[in-house]
Amino acid sequence: MSITTTTHLNFRGQAREALEFYGEVFDAQPVVVTYGQAHDPQGEAEHVLWGEVAAPSGFHVMAYDVQTDRDFDPGVHPVYVSLRCGTEQEVTTAYEGLARAARHVRTPLGPSAFSPLYGMLTDRFGVTWVIDQAVAFSAG
C-alpha cells in the first residue's frame, strides 16, 4: 500500500469550472458529484460536493464547493501547489495552460538555481502554482 498526497482546493461556487479548466489543461476528464446528486441538503444543489481530475500523466487534484452556511475565507496567503514535471515540454505545456487568463505571473518561465525550467503564477481561480522540471538538487 502506498500513500500519496493530493491537493484539495476549496471554492465557493467555482469548483466545477476549476475542475473543467484543469481537466482541459492536463488532458483528463473531471469527475464531479454535486450536492443535489448526493441528496445532501447542506450545499447548493448544483455546487460540487466532491470532484477530482486524475490525468494519465500523474496530475491529480480534488476540489469542492464549501457550503454557503459555513464560513469561507480563501486566506490572505493562498496554498501553493507544486507541480514537478519530468521534461521541459511538460513544464511548458502546464505553465502555458495555467497561464491562460492568469491573475498574476509571479515568475516568468525560465531557468532557476534549482531547475532548468521554472515558473510561478496565480491562475484565474486564485490558485498559485509553482511549476518546475524535477532534477536532482546539489547544494554544492
Q: What would you note in describing this structure?
A:
- With 140 residues, this protein is an alpha/beta fold.
- The protein has two domains: 59 residues, Signal recognition particle alu RNA binding heterodimer, srp9/1, CATH 3.30.720.100; 54 residues, 2-Layer Sandwich (Signal recognition particle alu RNA binding heterodimer, srp9/1).
- Helices cover 16% and strands 33% of the residues.
- The protein has two helices and eight strands, in the order βαββββαβββ.
- The strands form two sheets. It has a four-stranded mixed β-sheet with strand order 1-4-3-2, covered by helices on one side.
- Strand 6 and strand 7 form a beta hairpin.
- The protein starts with 6 loop residues before the first strand and ends in a 7-residue tail after the last strand.
- The mean pLDDT is 88.
- It comes from Kineococcus rhizosphaerae.
- This is PhnB protein.
- InterPro entries: Glyas_Bleomycin-R_OHBP_Dase, PhnB-like.
- It holds the Pfam family 3-dmu-9_3-mt.
